[in-house]
Q: What sequence folds into this?
């Protein structure tokens, strides 16, 4: 008898808890918010020149050498096409393609790849279903005169190391 009473009380508590939850409105999904302005709406401009791309790579290389970090450094134009590349001595081979992917993702999505990384880590896993996403920092758009002229991508270290080196290269353009 005691077991039946306890079971009945447990069932009643579960039903009450369920009905209380059902009466609460569902939490708003942040992805359903409609912003007034288009985020990351930097217009594409003329492609970066080879000379400017090499200058960005040289600045990134100087930062990497200062820290003794062998890196792969890529610069793409505003269409995502490779303009310049450097593989420092000792940089890991897998990072050749990764540096180029980071640069292409940064220019195609018009944002730092760190934003993509943060989105995936924040639970927006739909991002990994989008073509050409790389959710790893180290890709930075190159913006001149308010227009995207290309992007730099760095790979070979940790994400934070790649980001430091890519920012050094981007600083030659993004002023």
A:
């Amino acid at each position: 008898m005691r077991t039946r009473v306890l079971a009945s009380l447990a069932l009643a508590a579960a039903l009450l808890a369920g009905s209380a939850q059902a009466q609460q409105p569902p939490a708003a999904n942040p992805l359903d918010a409609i912003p007034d302005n288009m985020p990351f709406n930097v217009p594409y401009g003329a492609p970066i020149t080879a000379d400017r791309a090499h200058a960005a790579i040289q600045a990134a290389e100087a930062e990497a050498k200062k820290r003794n970090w062998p890196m792969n450094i890529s610069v793409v134009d505003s269409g995502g096409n490779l303009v310049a590349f450097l593989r420092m001595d000792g940089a890991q081979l897998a990072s050749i393609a990764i540096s180029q992917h980071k640069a292409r993702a940064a220019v195609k999505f018009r944002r730092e790849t760190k934003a993509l990384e943060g989105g995936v880590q924040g639970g927006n896993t739909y991002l990994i279903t989008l073509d050409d996403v790389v959710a790893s920092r180290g890709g930075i758009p190159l913006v001149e005169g308010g227009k995207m002229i290309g992007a730099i991508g760095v790979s070979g270290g940790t994400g934070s190391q790649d980001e430091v080196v890519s920012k050094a290269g981007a600083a030659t353009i993004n002023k």
Confidence is low (pLDDT under 50) at residues 5-16. The first strand starts at residue 72 and ends at 77. Residues 2-32 form one domain.
